[in-house]
Amino acid sequence: MTVDPIHQFTIQNWAPIITIGHHQFAFTNSALFMFIIVILVSALLIAGTAPRAVVPGRLQSIAEMSYEFVANTVRSTAGNEGMKFFPFVFTLFMFVLFANMIGLIPYSFTVTSQLIVTATLALSVFFIVVVYGFWRNGLGFLKLFVPKGVPIYILPAIVIIEVLSFISRPISHSVRLFANMLAGHITLQVFAGFIIMLAGFGVVGWFGAAIPLLLVIMLTALEFLVAFLQAYVFAILTCIYLNDAIHPGH
Amino acid sequence: MDPTAAKYIGAGIACIGMGGAGVGVGIIFGNYLAAALRNPSAAQGQFGNLIFGFAITEALGIFSLLIALLLLFGL
């Protein structure tokens, strides 16, 4: 009675595949959950901001708090000039947060546990930083790779390291979110498998199964923390990278 | 050696790298807590830096976990 911990990440096609030219368009469970996320985020913000009460209700409080939270993060890391990127960062934050949170509901699908999704988000951040950096600073953007006050004889090595770390940013940015979600869900699945295995041993096993059950409950609480923390980390790293594009000098 | 056995041993060895990330994350949060107790009023302003350092450190541990997962399920 073994549980395959990877099975939960399988992409399933839930609609007939449409072929246009050489491209196939499939409506998968991943796409369905992305639609659900977008609808939920939009519903929360539209319903939350509709009353415009001076004393906010619960829904309006959530909408205002999430706005203030992300706005403060953007302002403190990328400065007032970074606020023009606020809609982008806010969208990323809400999408990743809802994807992580919805993924914790049993039998649902975690969109952010697919590397291709997080890589797309991270690459869009990377290219926005590169394009905006060159558009705003011209070749001055390259100052990002040349820190001030470094002795000239170690400067070539520093420049190479800076370029490499800049290029590896989208990799670490996407893999961090993806691997955190993947590892968390695999851990939950493995411990849930322990419950079933131990319960199969009869009455003695039922008492033994209480231990992994307790652990699964605590791990689920931890996973909620991780789900929020990783969304926040994704947003704050986006702000830090955008800050590099706005102020390239070290 | 049986290739499957070598794969599992490799996955186990790859996970050792996470220990280093665990130490690093512990140092970051421990130092943050120590500094926050000395100067609680300045603690809130450094929360962003705390999370940034945590994220950078954690990524390295996650990379080794990723290698282990690739060995177990991917390759």
Structural notes for this entry:
The complex is a heterodimer of chains A (about 250) and B (about 80). Chain A has one domain. In chain A, about 70% of the residues lie in helices and about 0% in strands. Chain A has 7 helices and 2 strands. Chain A has helices spanning about 30-50, 60-80, 85-105, 115-135, 155-165, 170-200, 205-245, and strands at about 20, 25. In chain A, strands 1-2 form a two-stranded antiparallel sheet. Chain A is globular and about 70 Å long. The mean pLDDT of chain A is about 90. Chain B has about 80 residues and is mostly helical. Chain B has helices at about 5-40, 40-45, 45-75. In chain B, helix 1 (about 5-40) packs antiparallel against helix 3. The radius of gyration of chain B is 17 Å and the shape is elongated. Classes of the chains: A mainly alpha (about 250), B mainly alpha (about 80). The interface of A and B includes residues 6, 73 and 179 of A.
Secondary structure layout:
The complex is a heterodimer of chains A (250) and B (75).
Chain A: E1 18-20, E2 23-25, H1 29-49, H2 58-78, H3 86-103, H4 115-137, H5 155-167, H6 169-199, H7 203-246
Helix pairs in contact in A: 1-2, 1-3, 2-3, 2-7, 3-7, 4-6, 4-7, 6-7
Chain B: H1 3-38, H2 40-43, H3 47-74
Helix pairs in contact in B: 1-3
